[in-house]
């Protein structure tokens, strides 16, 4: 086993760990460990909520999650020799749950606590607990389903520079001030802006903590540095190329998923777990300019569930409530594809909440299938039929 450079005690919060991680992005959060290019090492991670969710049948913990706590990250890791303008190469060698803690959860967030993709249809908190058995999982809360996971870090990225951080904060504040598109409901909010509430900033103390807490970016969205991209194919064997913005790159990670469907539609929608990552790092000097990099690039690994039979649901960019036509809107079209799949699964004995949770965490394939055929975008959601213990095809 590789040397463990960031060790987690699941009985303690992130701020109480022997090595304290962080839950904000800022260039001045000190690195907790240094590695050399070519090194192989293990990083352990708490689940994204810092242990707020319990392995029980009561969804009140999902309802009451403190969102200013998330995401708790392990790191930053200083890679010797990495400089702004370089590319940090990260190989995911292995990934899995922490020993003795082989379970995960999927949730629907309550409307009054952030909501999710389909919050106007499913406004109340719900939870499914998944038992992890090797590569497979099943849930007492969604019976008749068993599938292999495609485990991955939902969140991984390098620290931003001061300039990039200022750009993030400026544009996200302007978005909130301007307001969203006409179809956008008030919930979920448009952006999660900086707040010192429940900030965890590694070893920072006193006035430095207060300064950084007021400026640091929340971890909710993906950005130029990577971050919370929630890409299910970023799994074992993947190689990721990150742009470097600060000396040492300051790589951090967390939000480990046992499995997830494309879109992670219920927001707390993967099978969230505490886990470990075995990593190898290297550097491409001057790689950002050489390859015209703006956002990270990755090469998927060769390991994934081998499902070959799917039932595919279409959706178009027409509002399901008003019937209003939207112009080539992939967001509305994918929402309709999800809703169509949920209505279908309800005919096979699942509640809407069970179907919503399943589409979020099972290895479904989401696609923008058409984005040029005016006025309707067409999105599709492909549901693997082999994960069910009964035939769900139309007959």
UniProtKB/TrEMBL annotation:
Q: Which InterPro entries match?
A: FmdA_AmdA (IPR004304), FormamaseFmdA (IPR054833)
Listed Gene3D superfamilies: Acetamidase/Formamidase-like domains
What protein name does the entry list?
Acetamidase/formamidase family protein
SUPFAM superfamilies to which the protein is assigned, alphabetical = Acetamidase/Formamidase-like
- What is the originating organism of this protein? Geitlerinema calcuttense NRMC-F 0142
